[in-house]
Amino acid sequence: MNLIPIGEANVQINCGSPLPWNVRDAEGKLLLARGYLIQTMAMLQNLMRRGVFVDADEIRASQEVSATLIKGMERPVVPFADQWHALESRLTELLKNYRDPQFLSGITEVEGMVATATEKHTDQTIYSVIHHNQERFDAYGITHSIHVACVCSILAKRLGWSKKQKTTVVNAALTMNLSIIDLQGELARSGDPITEQQRRRIRMHPAESVRLLENAGLKDADWLLAIEQHHESPDGKGYPYGLKQEFSEMSQMLRFADVFTAKYSARKSRAPMPAKQAAQSVYLASDGHPIASALLKEFGVYPPGCFVVLESGEMAVTIRRGKTAIAPLVAVVRDKSGMPVRDPLLRETVLPQYAILRTVPSQTLRFDTSISMQRLYTLTAE
Questions:
Q1: Dihedral (CA of 261, 263, 265, 269) sign
Q2: Which CA distances in Å does 169 have to 145, 149, 165, 225, 249?
Q3: Can you point out the beta strands (E) in 61-220?
Q4: Share of the chain residues as helix, strand and coil, in percent rounded to the nearest 5
Q5: pLDDT tens digits for 33-82?
Q6: pLDDT for the residue numbered 363
Q7: CB atoms within 10 A of CB 59
Q8: Residue 336: how many other CB atoms lie within 10 Å
Q9: Which helix (H) or strand (E) holds 4?
Q10: Bridge-partner residues for 200, per DSSP?
Q11: Residue 323: other Cβ atoms inside 10 A
Q12: Which of 82, 168, 175, 306 has the highest local Cβ count within 10 Å?
C-alpha cells in the first residue's frame, strides 16, 4: 500500500459526489469507504484538514476508469459564494496553525482553489475581490492575502507565465504575511497611530515570514525569495533591507498586487480608494513596469465589483467585463430617483442609453447585500 496525503488527490473530490477511493489513517486503517457521499462543503473541509491518506494505486485505478464512469454526467455545481467562503475558511485555519505538519500541503490545496476560481470564474473572482465587506477589519490579513493571490493568478495568466511560475507566486502571496496576519487585523480596526514596535514588525515581516516557512520545511527558493523581496524597491526605498537593485519578477508582482489591494481596502482610519484609481496609482508609481501595466489593463477601468452611474441616471455595479474595457455588463442597484432596486436589472453599457458616466465610491452607495449578493453571483455565473 502506497499511502499519500489526501491533499495530493483533492482534485478528484467533489462536493455532492461519492469518494472515488478509500480514505485511511497513517497506518492504512480504513476510515471512509469508497462511495461515501461528501454532501456539503463543510464535510469536504473537515476531511481535508484531518491529515488522512489514500492509496496511490487506488487513485491511479480511479483515474483510468473515471472517463468511462462520468462520461455524459454533469458534475454537481457548488455555488461560487460557497467556494469563496471555503477558500477563506481553509486559509484562516492554515495561517493560524502554521506549525502543523500538514501546513504546506494545505497551502498547496488553497492554491488549487485560487487557480480554479481565477481560471473558471474570473469575473466572479474579481467581483469578490473588489466588492468585499470593507468592515471585516479582524479578517483583513486573511482577505488581503487571498486578494493578492487572486490578482497575481490573473496577472500571471495575462503575462503568459508558466504553470509553475503562476503556482509559485500564488503560494507566495498566500504566505507572504504569515508573521503579521493578526497584526494586520489589529491595525485595520484601530484608529490609533502605529507604534514603533508595530512598525519594526512590519518592516521585518518579509524576513520573518521566510524564517517561519523554512522552519515549516519549505525549500522552494523562488517562493522564499519572492516573499523576502516583496517590499523591496529598485530605488532602494523598500524594506527590510533597502536594497537598490533589480528584484525577481515574482517579488515585484507581489509588490504591485499588495499595494493595489491595500489601496482599495478600508481601514478604520481611512476610506478605500476606488479600484480604478488604485490601479492607476500603482502604474504611475512603477515607471511603466510591464507587470503594473498588466494590472492597469485588468483592473484599471471598470472591473467587476465597482459602482458606476449610467447615462440613464441609474446606479449600478459592474458584474462582468465586456468585449471592450469601457463597456462591461452591469446590474442596476438604484433607479434614476435613487431608490434601491430589489431585483437587480441587467444593463449592457455598450448601448448609448446605458453608457457609463463615472464611477462612484463604494462607501457612498449601499444596497441590500443580504438579498442582492446571491442574485448578483447568479447573474455573473459563467
A1: positive
A2: 12, 8, 6, 10, 9
A3: none
A4: 55, 10, 35
A5: 877 777 666 676 677 667 778 888 887 776 654 444 434 444 445 678 88
A6: 59
A7: 18
A8: 11
A9: strand 3-5
A10: none
A11: 7
A12: 175
